[in-house]
Amino acid sequence: MNKVRSLLALFIFSMAINACKQDDPPLPDNLVNFDAAEQGFDSDKTEAEIKLTLTRSAETATAVTIDLAPSGIAYGTQFTTNPAATNNSLTVTIPAGSSTGSFKVTKGANLFLSGKETINFTIKTAASPVLVGTKTTSTLKFSSIVSTGSALKLNGGEGGSSAINSVFVDFSNNAQSSVARNSWDLGFYSGTDFRVVINGTTGATAKELPKTDLTQVTAADTVGLRNILILSQGTGSFDNVDDPEGDITKTAIKTISATDAENKVYIINPGNSGTTAKAWYKVRIVRKGTGYTLQYAQIAETTFKTLDVTKDSKLNFSYVSFEKGLTTVEPAKTDWDMEWTLATYKAALSATESVPYTYADYVFINHLGGVEAAEVLTTTSTYDAYSEATITTTTFKKDRNVIGSNWRTSAGPNGVPAGVKTDRFYVIKDAAGNVYKVRFMNYTSSDGGVRGYPNIEYKLVKKV
Description:
Organism: Larkinella rosea
Signal peptide: 1-21
Keywords: Signal
Structural class: mainly beta
Largest sheet: 5 strands, mixed
InterPro entries: CalX-like_sf, HmuY
Number of helices: 2
Protein name: HmuY protein
Helix content: under 10%
């Protein structure tokens, strides 16, 4: 009898589950679109990346076919694509689990152009179940552009609140550039000062030792440093991280002195590689002419590597990975305005005390590159009403954290959902003086978004 009852209960439970499944609303169509309708290709660049986005991650590897229509420029001799095109058509495969794809356009060597050349791209087909969306065309202009505005889905990548990428946005060029947060460890300043930053997007920390010989530093030098060099709830010190406000004169690693003997060894905790702690390193940095020389090794190693880093005036920083050496992170300092990332900032322990803390979905402006920004509350002006005439009433700031985490709310007590703050937007003045108004549309499931892929909208207010 008990067996019959158990079988009957299982049958009823299964029927209920099936009924719930039948009642669940179907997922919306998964559409593929171009990231931007227009993009510039500056004369000093050799390569441009054209991006595609899906409404949500692809269930299986998805082939998207794109037609090319060059004007004033010929495929094969003056430009090529990767993947290669055949009969002015190429195929991009978006991997399963990803919501983005791209292809690259490369200029031919020793190419002289008038700036009127263009390539028009059209999405023709997408493999089922993905459908072709509404933003099906995109134009690459072989000259600089000043965008009138667009909408972008930022490619923070997988990981949700610990999304794997930092995303740099260039409003005037309708462009975004994603780079893995854990792809670098040190950034060498290209300005007049000799400064080196650690990777705040992975929660990195640094501790100076009273030694100048790397070979004399061992694992014994790390004793007692775990609560100092590992950022967690209530642990860590601002002495061991770069200034949360972005002041380049307040880095955890002191100014690199012209006197070699003054440059000490530092222990670096590079932070996390995703959810995995990276190995600790010992480093020493000295000047070499107008650049730097880096000496580095893992804590227990008895020999060390040496790497020269030159200053590049086109960049805010030149970057180094302990594992790979020199690497590319930020675009040129004139080619980005805003960075969305995970960041080391600060959290209050009390009214008078705070500690370093890593924040997800944090936004910096390119303050070292001359970008300024302002927060505008909708009680002052609505996003739609904000115009060139309103700029004179706007107080722009050069602070790196003007936007910070102010644009969003986190999930709170009593079921308060996370979401974009709709009572504000931002006005950003790029280094050239072009002014854009920017608002965040969503960033998490509570407000219709996907964590790691926030959507933004921006419009040109004033063109220089």
